[in-house]
Write a structure and sequence with these properties.
Layout lengths: L2 H12 L5 H9 L23 H10 L3 E3 L8 H4 L5 E3 L1 H26 L7 H10 L3 H7 L7
Parallel strand pairs: 1-2
Helix pairs in contact: 5-7, 6-7
Length: 148
């Protein structure tokens, strides 16, 4: 199994129904579980057919935005008929910081404190976010490092 296939497999395993990650998402993110969208999947055309379920769930759930690192597989011209847009997580969080800085800092602080193996200092936490591609977000959060 090459590295790409292994990474993709591990990502799927972590979010399988019944997995700890899936259970935590469902328990802590209101309205995170969308069901009953499967009939829409065949009508969605994307560069990667394996992503069609994301758009189908967004349509069924009444979403207007898909937040994803994978923008290339969610081109605007394919999302526009469904009144959807895709946005990079860095842009999404950056916009949230502009609207609700205190709440985003509180969420980041709570997340950082929840990391136990290993725990992270604020600088280590921000470096991790930076490695994940959240450059704008980290640029702003560094100004409020004492709060996270």
């Amino acid at each position: 199994m090459n590295e790409f296939k292994l990474h993709r497999h591990l990502r799927r395993v972590r979010t399988l129904p019944g997995s700890p990650a899936r259970s935590l998402m469902n328990a802590h993110v209101r309205d995170s579980l969308v069901t009953g969208f499967e009939h829409l999947i065949p009508s969605v055309e994307l560069p990667d057919a394996d992503d069609s379920h994301v758009v189908a769930a967004a349509i069924h759930g009444g979403a207007s935005l898909i937040v994803t690192f994978n923008l290339k597989d969610f081109p605007p011209e394919r999302l526009k008929p469904y009144n959807l847009a895709a946005q990079h997580p860095d842009d999404f969080i950056f916009d949230l910081l502009d609207l609700h800085a205190a709440r985003v800092c509180e969420a980041a602080a709570n997340h950082r404190r929840s990391l136990k193996n290993p725990p992270k200092t604020a600088d280590e936490y921000l470096d991790t976010l930076l490695k994940q591609g959240l450059t704008q977000t980290v640029g702003l959060l560094r100004e409020w490092k004492v709060a996270i």
